[in-house]
Amino acid sequence: MVNKSFDFLVSIAKNYYFDSLSQSEIAKKYNISRPTVAGILKECKEKGIVEIRINDSSPFSTPISVKFKTLYGLETACIIPNETDYSLTLNKICFQAAVFFSSLLRDSIHVGISWGTTLYHMVRQLPHLAVNDGEVVQLMGGLGASALFYDGFELTRTLSEKMNSRCYTFLSPLLVNSEELKEKLLFEPGIRETYEKTSTVDIALVGLSSDKPEDSALVRAGFLSLNEAQQIFEDGSCGHLCGYHYDSHGRFMDITINRRVVGINPEHFLRIKRRIGIACGEKKTKAIRAALKGRLITDLFTDEITALKILTQDDQLQNT
Predict the structure, then answer these.
(1) Are 251 and 148 in contact (CB under 8 A)?
(2) Of 1, 51, 166, 214, which has the fewest Cβ atoms less than 10 A away?
């Protein structure tokens, strides 16, 4: 007859859960059968001696993250609680994005990357990754950016080094003066090769920026003047992605400036299986919301305050 006193049950439970002994090891220790140990562990749960709790504090599975996935048809939503300092919040978002991106990598993968400070912080936090036969492709031109450390060329080069992969860059401006000049540039051998590579991308890493002139990353980088940005904004632009402006419904706009962007074709972009959008800050609320409505991204990494503002705006719209 097996002793099933309270103290004995507790001892078995501690051996299994605290000391990490296997059921067979416990059976040998107490000279009982393994099925008996299994039965005792089950009894410990039934009597409340052992309580199993899963502490799931992952930002991928919080109620707001789950709601974003459901509401906007996302593959992944990672909503990070805000810190008192913006830079701390941004770094936490970029760290989670870096971990997630690393988990998607495999041999022979083709990764596309755009530009911006958010992606700079994300790439900076990536470890060196062992990817065989991989490629990293710059998704848009970038010559002439005012801050070289976060332009597309530097980010593409840095990411390719961390992935130990081949690198393809656009040695051209983001915007040129005419559609004719763009077409000519795309027939230059080096530029043509990168342009063709953009249609083979498996995963895209992109930032999302507001098109409000005073908040526009394109203005800060020197690609657009304030007057140009103001005109685009008045024409109904809400945000931009890979240099292309989109409206409040997340539709790439049929405007002259979009036709002068040297970079991935918008239709090719939307065919990329995983389009990871990383954006932080309330100023980007409308741009992120529009990108979600237009299904421009498949995965979102953002902060909680911005996410709540997006949900509030959509709730208000549904209740009108």
Answers:
(1) no
(2) 1
List, in order of start, the domains of the chain with CATH numbers: 6-46 (1.10.10), 63-318 (3.40.50.1360)
CB 200 within 8 A of CB 272: no
Cα gap 142→122, rounded to integer Å: 19
Q: How far is CA 128 from the centre of its chain?
A: 18
Query: Which element (helix H / strand E) includes 78?
Result: strand 76-80
Are 318 and 310 contacting, i.e. CB atoms less than 8 angstroms apart? no
Give the ranges where 57-172 is alpha helix by DSSP (H). Answer: 63-72, 86-104, 117-124, 152-163
- CB count within 10 Å of CB 42 equals 11
**First and final C-alpha spacing in the chain:** 71
> What would you measure as the largest C-alpha separation in the chain, in angstroms?
91
Within 196-262, strands assigned E span: 203-207, 209-210, 237-241, 244-247
DSSP E strands in the chain: the ranges are: 76-80, 110-113, 135-138, 166-168, 203-207, 209-210, 237-241, 244-247, 274-278, 299-303
Structure tokens at 61: 């599975």
136 close to 113: Cβ distance less than 8 angstroms: yes
